[in-house]
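Intended use. Records such as the Carbohydrate ABC transporter substrate-binding protein, CUT1 family entry shown here are meant for training and evaluating sequence-to-structure methods. They are not intended to support clinical decisions.
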Amino acid sequence: MRSRSQVKRGLLALATATAALVAASCTAGSAADGPQPAPGPDEQVTITVSSQFTDRELDVLNRVLDGFHAKHPNITINSQGNQDDDKITQAIRGGNPPDVAISAETINLGQFCSSGAWQDLGPYLQRDQVDMNRIVKVAQEYTEYEGKRCAMPLLADVYGLYYNAEAFARAGITEPPKTMSELTDMAKRLTEFNPDGSIKVAGFLPVLGSQANHPWNWAPHFGASWMDEQGKSSLGTDPAWQEMYRWQKELVDFYGWDKLVQFTSGLGQQYSADNAFQRGKIAMMIDGEYRTGFIDQYAPELRYGTAPFPVADGRPELYGTGFVTGTIIGIPRGAENAGAAWELVRYLTTDTNALVELGNGLKNVPTTTEALHDPRVQRSEQYQTFLDLFDNPQLVPSPPSPNGSAYMKSAEDFSVKWQSGQVGDLGAGLRDLDAQIDAAKALGGN
């Protein structure tokens, strides 16, 4: 179960992290040539592991780290939780990096690799003959940037459709939608209004920036591409983006923007017991597999189902796709005990027992094929949907960029203006957005 908001939180810290990463490439000190050897069995070493985990999630990680220590008693681990990307980057910049860094913000990989803030793991993989084909292909893709692998995938988050089974039954709906027109029709049928016309229950909340509604979560289901073959922003040239935004606007107009603003202002926080879907305020939504853990804990009485998220009309070949992101792990530049750090990184990302224990404890998807299909993986009917989705080669990660999630934040800022009626010409607005994204990317070092 994830208690962090992943990409969205990364967007909020983007400016600080970007500046720090650029500085880190100049101040953290050069990594030694070649892979560092593992410590000998009689050599006592302590390594520091920094992660964003806290409370119960940190306990899960620490139990798995204890398993590593049992296999390598000469390597002691100092696990430091509540360390987000900004804190880790500041430590790298200050010349006091952890030996191992765990990040929940996959989109920052381009920064980590291009700045040199995280070391290239290629020499270690080659030396130890690690078979990367054991790792699901999409996870391989989102941990590499321009031919450099400065991270390994730890666990993954996959997004799909959640729906309230009791609401479906009341409305006479027998199966989840597969197309956007079906989603629109069902959303209207499932919506309930109060006597004063305000929204009581939203069949589907079409507000980007609310809950798990983000352009990057929706885009794969329309076949929308972020960049063209030249690496330029393509929101203004790929017609799928206009289709996505026009579909959204139809639902926004059905509800009324002012009513949506009022409705969303009264919803509970996304990662809490008061989540709107858990409280029956939203009948259908897009979200990650981790939501099943929240429901188990906070709303065990909720009858719900999961399915792949619907796709654009006329694009049935896209059904089963979805956005994927995840937790990544690497060795920061200047790490004092890189050899021992690599032993831990390899263990956490390739050992089936470790991945199954982490996946079950954190309610995230394991990233190796062996762990994904391990019978010990706890799989309810609802959770199985996401395991099946992760097996789909059509999954889409966001393309890494040297300035991290800046382009995603720009797209979300544009979306807020569009849905509130501040954009008159959608095509012109998207072309202007392309120019803004490309300019920012150039300043980011590419």
